[in-house]
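User: I'm curious what two different proteins look like when written out as structure tokens. Can you demonstrate?

Assistant: Sure. I'll show them one after the other, since each token string lines up with its own sequence. Here's the first protein:
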Amino acid sequence: MIYLIYVILAVLVVLCSTKLSAYVDALDKKTNLSGAFLGGVLLAAVTSLPELFTSLTAVLSLDEPQLVQGNVLGSNIFNLCIPAVLVLSFNKRYRQSRIAQSHYNTLYFGLAMYVCCALAIVSPFSVSLGFTQVNLMTPVIIVLYVIGIRLMKNDDSVEQEEESNLDLSIRQIMVRFVLFSLALVAVSIALTQVTDRIADALQLGTTVAGAIFLGVATSLPELSASVSLVRLNNFNASIGNVVGSNLFNFTILCFADLLYQKASIYILDGATLFASQVGNLLLFGLLSSIIMIVVLAARKSKAAVQIAAVLILASYVASIMLSM
């Protein structure tokens, strides 16, 4: 019964996120904001709501900080599998597409955040914010995210001239956007509770449970949005959604570190970084991000894109197998 509930909640996540993606796409075409910013920041933040609220629930309600690590890092690796599958399935369309330069910057900032997470684990150093203690890397990651947003906001390297299919005013779009966002939050919190019960039933570690069940389920919004955008022949926004979501996901660790009062969010239960499930997720997440840069840079080469995409998929499978 618990598995059926998990599937139902996952379906609801997809339905809510599909509607949200449509509204954000309409804002893209009805406003003067850059497509890179809307896809990489606004749409990315919307589709990352499940990761955010499930992670906050994990630390505030379940007292499972490692579930947060598995959720965020597992989602990031799975997210990159989405464009990998899409470029394999629509290789010619992808090679003919135009990609915003800011997507490269987003991936570079993501690499820096992976390094920050590793440093937070191997060299834990806390700083006081007056009302709480956080790891030094937490404010560093926030600063990196803010800089990344500014770069996306000013990127007009790819222009879109399509008109929206939604016959709604901007205000009507925003009202619906808020309502479906609230629905997505409620479903995400329930999904966290169910995942914790599945982890107990299968006797899985909380990190790997987060990476498999929670990481995949909360990445369904990115999957739904990306597939929809590719159908609209908009690979640029599709990739922006994924890499922007990955960047936003790192800030979730920061929020969790801020709210988790018992200890730092970057804990390993006595294991060393390179012998832990978290270490595997960090390593393969870093590797997948580097390969994704190759997918973008070698866009005109069919063979190079296909090989790189397959390597991203292999990286995800390896990360799960080695974390079991």
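Here's a second, unrelated protein for contrast:
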Amino acid sequence: MARPKVSPLEKRSLKITFRVTEKQRQRLLTLADSCGTKPGDLVRTKIFKGHFPATRLPKIDEDTYVELKKIGVNLNQLTRHADSGKFPFGIDKTLAALLRQEEKILRLLLKDDSGSKER
């Protein structure tokens, strides 16, 4: 089957070129890869729609999944204790450690796209 014809108004026939540093180029390529799109499409979406395309979440391996499941079970147990009024000694340190671990996992899963403030 042939590709459908694009109307002259929708056809992208003009080219715009701009210069970037090597660091900016690498960042653009990384962002485009994490969104599953081409760099030109990424820039076009950001400029004309005002936001980046949604990022694809990377597939996590089985070990990471098992570890996240264990953390979830522990948090569920701690929540039950807290709801019943029983606060184990040192719970504040444990919760702080879990929050730090959660932030670390999220950074790894999202490939630390913290440089992009305008999502």
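A detail about the second structure: Confidence is low (pLDDT under 50) at residues 112-119.
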